[in-house]
Amino acid sequence: MVRCPRRGKSSRDTSRTRSIARIRRLTADAQIPALLAYARHGRPYLREGRGYLYLNQTRSLDSPERVIWKVGETKNLGRRRKQYDACDVITQHRWFLAFHVQKRLLAERIIQLSFLSQSAGGERVRFDRRCPCGHRHREYVYFPNGKSVDDVVAIIFDALALLGETNFTIKRLD
Ligand SMILES: [Zn+2]
């Protein structure tokens, strides 16, 4: 295998990174089938592995009447929750569910794209600057058409089904 001299990565890694970068330039609706096709060939998505997806909700800082949602991924749910608890800026988190899955990175991405798809109608909410707590709070979504927890969980189930994640376990968070 040829090594890429600059990054010390293999050329195969570099071509994967390029394929993923190309997919990221598509619309949310186009990215979903493109990523599924990419993964169908057995190629790993980033540094893939099993772990948790978590669903929580908070209030938009700019418009506190707006509920915003997030699905994130982690290998260590306890540590990730402590990071949230340590934040003094975004404090109104409600936690719902965690899903233990085999491919947490691809699953996180497909779910986030599903939230932004035309059928779900979600809008990305950006917290661009690094928060004083030391983290960036990214990947929140606002649904202008309003969504219940059940609606949001249904989108997650559909995304996991698309991925063939059939043996996931669910944990209630509160
Ligand atoms: Zn913070």
Characterise this structure.
By secondary structure, this protein is α+β, with helices and mostly antiparallel strands. Helices cover 36% and strands 20% of the residues. The protein has helices at residues 11-24, 28-40, 77-85, 104-116, 149-162, and strands at 51-59, 67-74, 94-101, 123-125, 140-142, 169-172. The relative contact order is 0.17. The mean pLDDT is 90. This is GIY-YIG nuclease family protein.
Layout of helices and strands:
Layout: H1 11-24, H2 28-40, E1 51-59, E2 67-74, H3 77-85, E3 94-101, H4 104-116, E4 123-125, E5 140-142, H5 149-162, E6 169-172
Antiparallel strand pairs: 1-2, 1-3, 2-5, 3-6, 4-5
The structure holds zinc ion.
Which features would summarize this protein structure in a list?
5 helices; 174 residues; 36% helix; six-stranded antiparallel sheet
**Uncertain parts:** none
The first-to-last residue Cα distance is: 48 Å
Number of helices: 5
Percent range of helical residues: 25-40%
Cofactors, ions, other ligands: zinc ion
State which percent range the strand residues make up: 15-25%
Sheet with the most strands? 6 strands, antiparallel
Output the radius of gyration.
Answer: 17 Å
Number of strands: 6
**Structural class, from helix and strand content?**
alpha+beta
Summed up, the domain count is 1
* Shape summary: globular
Summarize the structure.
It comes from Favolaschia claudopus. This protein has 174 residues and is α+β, with helices and mostly antiparallel strands.
